[in-house]
Fold:
Amino acid sequence: MGETVIKTDKLTKRFGDFIAADEITFEVEKGEIFGFLGANGAGKTTAMRMLCGLSIPSSGSATIAGFDVYKQTEQIKRNIGYMSQKFSLYEDLTVIENIKFFGGIYGLTNLQIKTKSDELLHNLGLEQEAKKLVASLPLGWKQKLSFSVAVLHEPKIVFLDEPTGGVDPVTRRQFWDLIYNAADRGVTIFVTTHYMDEAEYCNRISLMVDGKIKALDTPRNLKNTFGVETMDEVFYKLARGAKRGD
Amino acid sequence: MKQFLVFIKKEFAHVLRDRKTLLILFGMPVVQILIFGFALTNEVKNSRIVVMDQANDAASKEIITKIGASRYFDIVRTVMSHQQMEDAFKRGDIRMAVIFPAGFNNDLLHQNAAQIQVIADASDPNNATTLTSYVGSIIQDYQAQLSKTSKVPYRIQPEIRMLYNPQLKGAPNFVPGVMALVLMLVCVMMTAVSIVKEKETGTMEILLVSPFRPILVIISKAIPYLLLSLINVASILLLSVFVLDLPVNGNILLLFAESTLFIITCLTVGIFISVKTNSQQVAMLISLMGMLLPTILFSGFMFPIENMPVPLQWFSNIIPAKWYYIIVKDIMIKGLGFNAIWKETLILSGITVALLIVSLKSFKIRLS
Structure:
């Protein structure tokens, strides 16, 4: 490892008087699974939108896959994948049509799309369902498909915004297997979550409170530092001081 | 470019897979044309009338044949006393009576002028006016025939002219109106809803994070509706020619070009609404209340703009459908060329450009 793919320095976003993200500074290395935690309204989404090139920062600096968030948003977009908390495939298209569409807008060739989609369907065991409408799949499968589509174009970094909301623990575990697989292939995972068991799966975690990063370390070190047994307790200790709520 | 095609293909899949949308898209123009063409018409058909021919000569007979051949009239009896006629009117058996005085042909040939008495049941004034003007036009038609074969200027009273509508069709105005209405509905509502749907389901975010340019997202959303709307224009015109016998008198290419311009105007309005709203219901409501209603009220299609108070007349000028309606009427019914409509075209283009700038600007603001 050792190659830094996300680097931010005092990254700040203001909306009028409100400081949604306040001088965020951190680094993420290649192939790392980086957990981005925080209560609702802590500023996670704002920070993530800046990193994805969807929102221009008010001040500070950041580079994503070596590209500047102010000037090189187009290059950033080519090198990242994104999966939002809302289920984000087209329900009225079939599985294969979704794959072809997203492969297509990322500029993959027909041959690449063919190879990739065969591989993807095989890995997920969805060969039989390829021609079914996505709407007919169970939620767990949709989420897994959604993730696989987000990494279809082999991005350097994939951003997951609460990807496992509303999914049962077994499916969540399977979902994390996919994440580990991707990380093993060298894809950097940047994930936000509310589930503390998921936080344990991450290599490192940052915890945001009121727009600031209050803690950043491995789950084990965090628990040691705060002298508690579980990530839940770490979260409570830090988030209790929060002034902003929903 | 390939990305663009992939996107458009996907948009077509959305539209073609949604049965309800398809039904609205292609069913609506047909239904509207049929409703306006046959049910909601203010034209009066098969009215029972009597003709009293006291002249019984060549000219009167020919005119009576003409009246009888018209689908607007149904001649019930040709001989009747004045008393019988009055009774028939009172009972409501007949709507109109046409009376030829004795020596009608004689008057016409020797004095170059003759009179016909037309009595109409004016308890329904609109109906009466319509009927008398129909008869007037038939007489006018006969008179024109006479003038062709002879140099003598024959005159038959009453004289009523039906400009631009020599075949005596009731209200051809509604076809341009329906075109404006359908295009407005399809383009504004469908684009607005389809873009807002992507926002609602979260797929818009995915698209914005992808390297696909936001402006292209908007354009590729609009293109399928542009094509489908042109199909709608074609189907309305086909219906109008083959079902309603209303031909396109002007240049059909010009008509399609102007329709494309109006479709683009509507698409821009749709995009504007989609940028400003976040739910499909709101988008639909705004499209219906905010666009459809003004289109019906202020395009001049249902209610004459000249009769409105001045501020409303002024307001009607910013309704794109008004200009499109004028353009289609001029091309289709009056058969005029581009010379006659360049001003309206210019205004419509102006409105389109202004809307386009505003929507693209607000779309950008939303992004940052």
